[in-house]
Design goal:
The structure is a homodimer of 112-residue chains. Chain A is an alpha+beta fold. Chain A folds into 2 domains: 3-70, Orthogonal Bundle (Arc Repressor Mutant, subunit A); 73-111. The first copy, chain A, is built from 7 helices and 3 strands. Chain A has helices at 3-11, 13-24, 29-36, 40-52, 72-82, 85-88, 94-111, and strands at 27-28, 56-61, 64-69. The first copy, chain A, has a 3-stranded antiparallel sheet with strand order 1-3-2. In chain A, a hairpin with a 2-residue loop joins strand 2 (56-61) and strand 3 (64-69). In chain A, helix 3 (29-36) crosses helix 4. The longest helix of chain A has 18 residues, at 94-111. Chain A starts with a helix and ends with a helix. The A-B interface holds A 3-4, 7-8, 10-13, 16, 23, 69, 71, 74-75, 77-78, 81, 83-85, 87-88, 91, 93, 95-96, 99, 102-103, 106, 110 and B 3-4, 7-8, 10-13, 16, 23, 69, 71, 74-75, 77-78, 81, 83-85, 87-88, 91, 93, 95-96, 99-100, 102-103, 106, 110. Chain A binds a DNA duplex (30 and 30 nucleotides) through residues 12, 14, 28-30, 38-48, 60, 62-65. Chains A, B: Keywords: DNA-binding, Transcription, Transcription regulation. Chains A, B: This is DNA-binding transcriptional ArsR family regulator. Chains A, B: InterPro entries: ArsR-like_HTH, HTH_ArsR_DNA-bd_dom, HTH_MetalResp_TranReg, WH-like_DNA-bd_sf, WH_DNA-bd_sf. Chains A, B: One of its GO terms (molecular function) is DNA binding.
Chain lengths: 112, 112
DNA sequence: TAAATATATTCCTTGACAGGAATATTCTCC
DNA sequence: GGAGAATATTCCTGTCAAGGAATATATTTA
C-alpha cells in the first residue's frame, strides 16, 4: 500500500469527513450517510475506497456493518511526515534531544 | 487553505516525488523535470499546483526559478495527524504522560 | 538586436472519478 | 416463505485533471 493511495483516499472531501467522523467512534453505513447528508450508495462507495486503501475495517453485526478506522495508514503517514520535520524544526537543543530519546525508549518498552 | 487542497496536491505521484526531491534540496524546474523524467511543461504545471496549495515557494535567479518546500502545510498535516494518534497510542502510562507534559512545556518556552 | 535558454501558458484529448438512479444481495422478523 | 431493512453493486453521465504539443514570456549572451 503506497502513500498516494492513502493520500488520494483522503483527498476527497466526503471521505475526509468520514474519517473525521470515525475518529470519534465507529459507525454504520447509514449513520455515516446521515451525518454527511449523502445517499447510502455514495457512502458505501466512499467506504469501499477507504477500505481498499486500508484505512477502515468493519465488523458485521446482523445486516449492518460497523466501520472503524485502522491505525496502520495513520502510522505510515506519521512516519512519512517525520522525514519532513527538520524542515521546520531546525533547532534541537540538548534538553529536547534528551527528552526525545527518553520518549523513544519508553515507547519501545511498551511494545513488549 | 484546507486539508483537501494539500492532500490532493500530494496525491498525484509526480507531485509527491517532487516534494520528496525538494526535501533534500531546492531545485530549478529543469532539474526537477530531469529527475522525474517528465517534460518541462508538466513540471511547471505540477509546481503551479503545489504552489497554489502553499506547499512550495521559489526565488527568481536570473531566468531560472529555484523552488523549495514551505513548512506550513507540513505543520498543518502534522497537527491534523496528531488528533489521530490516540487511535494507535491507546495506552498512556504515567511516565508517558509526565514526559509529554514536560515536552509541551519545553516547546512552549522555545516559542518565546 | 538576434539567438539561445529557462519557464509558463494555452489548447486539445483522453481517462478517471464522483454522483444519481435503479437494482442486487443479505439479513431479520413476522 | 414473504416483507422490510441495511448495504453493495451496476450503469450512466458529467466534470475535472493530467499529459502532449505548440506557443508565449522573460532573461542572458554573443
Amino acid at each position: 500500500m503506497d502513500y498516494t493511495t492513502i493520500l488520494s483516499a483522503l483527498a476527497e472531501p466526503n471521505r475526509l469527513q468520514i474519517v473525521e467522523l470515525l475518529r470519534k467512534s465507529p459507525l454504520t453505513v447509514g449513520e455515516i450517510a446521515d451525518h454527511l447528508d449523502i445517499r447510502q450508495p455514495q457512502a458505501s462507495k466512499h467506504l469501499r475506497v477507504l477500505h481498499k486503501a486500508g484505512m477502515v475495517e468493519f465488523t458485521v453485526e446482523a445486516n449492518r456493518r460497523i466501520y472503524k478506522l485502522r491505525s496502520e495508514p495513520f502510522k505510515a503517514l506519521d512516519l512519512w511526515l517525520k522525514e519532513y520535520r527538520d524542515i521546520w524544526e531546525e533547532k534541537f537543543d540538548n534538553l529536547d534531544c534528551y527528552l526525545q530519546d527518553l520518549q523513544k525508549k519508553v515507547n519501545k518498552e511498551n511494545e513488549n
